[in-house]
Amino acid sequence: MRGVDMTNDVSDVEKMAEFFDRRAASYEEHMRRSVAEFDEFYRSVAEAIARTKEPIAILDLGCGTGLELGFIFDRAPNCRITAVDLPSEMLAKLSEKHAEKAGQITLVQG
User: Fold this and answer.
1) What residue numbers bound the domain in which 81 lies?
2) Domain with 100 in it: what CATH number?
3) Has residue 70 got a pLDDT over 90?
4) Predicted TM-score (pTM) of this structure
5) Which distant-in-sequence residues (6+ apart) come within 8 Å of 92 by Cβ?
């Protein structure tokens, strides 16, 4: 039985992370221009979460710069978020933007 060659897969993932790392600085502006009704879209994403003061746990896969987190914190101000993404620069932007909630956000690169 032959093993599976994951070399190209890993390379593609690394390329994707590098692509978004290079675009992290302009990502939010790009999304605001590209997504019709930007605020309404991200607000609707957050509406899947019930309003609560409880410290619920939320897993945000592909979190990018955390565009939806402000809306999520409005609905669940004490939530604890695990934010996962490949590009380190996106996570850095998220951390910078939501510094006041740093104790409630765990960043995971991968």
Assistant:
1) 7-109
2) 3.40.50.150
3) yes
4) 0.78
5) 24
